[in-house]
Design a protein that fits this description.
Number of strands: 0
Oligomer: single chain
Helix content: over 70%
Order of helices and strands: HHHHHHHHHHHHHHHHHH
Number of helices: 18
Structural class: mainly alpha
Largest sheet: none
Shape: globular
Distance between the termini: 48 Å
Strand content: under 5%
Length: 448
């Protein structure tokens, strides 16, 4: 099962991993950038904080300099990330050109008091460009093409960071920006009696943003669910899975109600927990099946290790995991069931909350599309689960390797996986902790 090994063996395993010492420092710098992005109050701090976060992620993607695939991933991520940063900077410069101010509160006030339609349209263009740049960074369709390549070429220890941390800060920032513009819409439409222009018109800022978000949401849902069906590499499959989940998050973002804000925050929480657990399990499996003599038992040359020495690359490398480590296999199965939205796991309730908020607001068509693509995406999750429980004579390692203790992981890794799995599995028994927290956060954001 998810068992432990002696302290000396655990230290030996860690030393064999050869993780760069700079990893923790760069990850902390990226976290600082993410924190500053959420708390940024003007266009200058917005750009500086997103660049601080992005530079940390660029370095992480290519931190294994002796691996050609990691260098390629880092270079590709840097070039395309720089393009998205240029789009954000262009949007910020357009807003400054039309208003002469950079502070967000001042921009909101300027939108409220001005009646010049050309200025409002210029501000709308700038805000739309900022949203497009951020959609590029989170890998939302149709700006997603870089995401599967970068995730697949990066080592697993880096991919686990790329899929979670940068997305949380960007989504929260977009939520704050969109909510503030929505408040301006409400106040402006209430006070705009007899005025020639309101934010409810087809030329309004909120109108452009809502359509942009909905288009990206529906494309992300469709592309992430359908293209993922043809993947045979585990990280590319999880990359398209992430794109599909971004579609649900953007759907909740576009609704702009108190309930949708709560569902969005709850979705981010469950996605982060589940995705983190999946990658921790894949890291554990990689350490186990590629350690010592385990790799000598592979008879299929197509499983060439193109990442770090402990990476799982192909889905078929997980074949028969259940027969060698049942608890690790069951933990991964629970996470995949949750990603697919199977009740009563936490992933089911997150999708239910988003769809309920969308139906209440009248988004019937996109809600139907979201339900259909959820059923489609469940098929590739179930395919991975089937592979986990299929025995094969060419399977992972021999019984001698198992008896020698190759199928053990250290205490900390085991404890984190167990805790996250229990949280996902038993959410329905004690949901108040997460639900009350998300409700408080949504009330704070929505009414502030």
């Amino acid at each position: 099962g998810i068992s432990t090994i002696s302290e000396s063996n655990s230290l030996n395993m860690v030393s064999k991993k050869n993780y760069p010492r700079e990893y923790t420092l760069v990850a902390l710098l990226s976290t600082v950038g993410a924190s500053l992005l959420i708390s940024s109050s003007d266009l200058i701090s917005l750009y500086l904080s997103i660049e601080l976060q992005s530079f940390g992620v660029y370095i992480l993607a290519s931190i294994y300099r002796n691996l050609g695939s990691a260098v390629s991933a880092g270079l590709k991520y840097f070039l395309l990330g720089s393009l998205s940063s240029c789009i954000i900077l262009l949007g910020a410069s357009i807003i400054y050109t039309y208003t002469g101010i950079t502070h967000f509160d001042s921009i909101y006030s300027f939108i409220f008091v001005t009646e010049n339609q050309s200025i409002l349209q210029g501000i709308s263009l700038g805000i739309v460009l900022i949203f497009i740049g951020f959609f590029f960074k989170v890998g939302a369709a149709p700006l997603h093409n870089w995401s599967p390549d970068v995730y697949d070429d990066s080592p697993n220890i880096v991919t686990v960071w790329l899929t979670v941390m940068p997305k949380i800060s960007i989504i929260i920032f977009l939520l704050e920006l969109y909510l503030n513009i929505g408040i301006i819409e409400y106040n402006f439409s209430s006070a705009a009696v007899g005025r020639s222009f309101t934010l409810l018109d087809n030329n309004s800022i909120i109108y452009y943003l809502k359509n942009l978000i909905l288009i990206s949401s529906i494309l992300s849902l469709i592309i992430g669910s359908t293209v993922g069906l043809s993947q045979n590499r585990i990280k590319r499959l999880l990359a398209y899975s992430t794109i599909s989940h971004i579609g649900f998050i953007l759907l909740a973002l576009s609704i702009n109600t108190e309930q949708s804000v709560e569902s969005l925050i709850f979705y981010i929480v469950q996605y982060s927990l589940t995705n983190l657990n999946i990658f921790l399990i894949i890291l554990a499996v990689g350490i186990l099946i590629h350690s010592s003599t385990a790799k000598n038992y592979y008879s299929d040359n197509s499983f060439e290790d193109k990442g770090s020495e402990n990476d799982v690359q192909y889905i078929n490398e997980l074949k028969g995991l259940f027969f060698y480590n049942p608890l690790l296999s069951l933990s991964l199965s629970i996470c995949l069931f949750s990603m697919a939205g199977i009740p009563p796991l936490i992933g089911f309730f997150s999708k239910q909350f988003v769809l309920y908020a969308a139906i209440q607001k009248g988004f019937y068509f996109i809600s139907i599309v979201a339900i259909i693509v959820s059923v489609i995406s469940a098929s590739y999750y179930l395919n991975v689960i089937k592979i986990l429980h299929v025995s094969d004579s060419k399977n992972i390692v021999s019984s001698d390797s198992k008896e020698a203790g190759q199928w053990n992981i250290n205490n900390t890794h085991s404890f984190i996986i167990s805790t996250l799995t229990i949280s996902i599995l038993l959410f329905i028994l004690k949901p108040s902790i997460i639900l009350n927290s998300t409700a408080i956060l949504s009330l704070t954001l929505f009414y502030y």
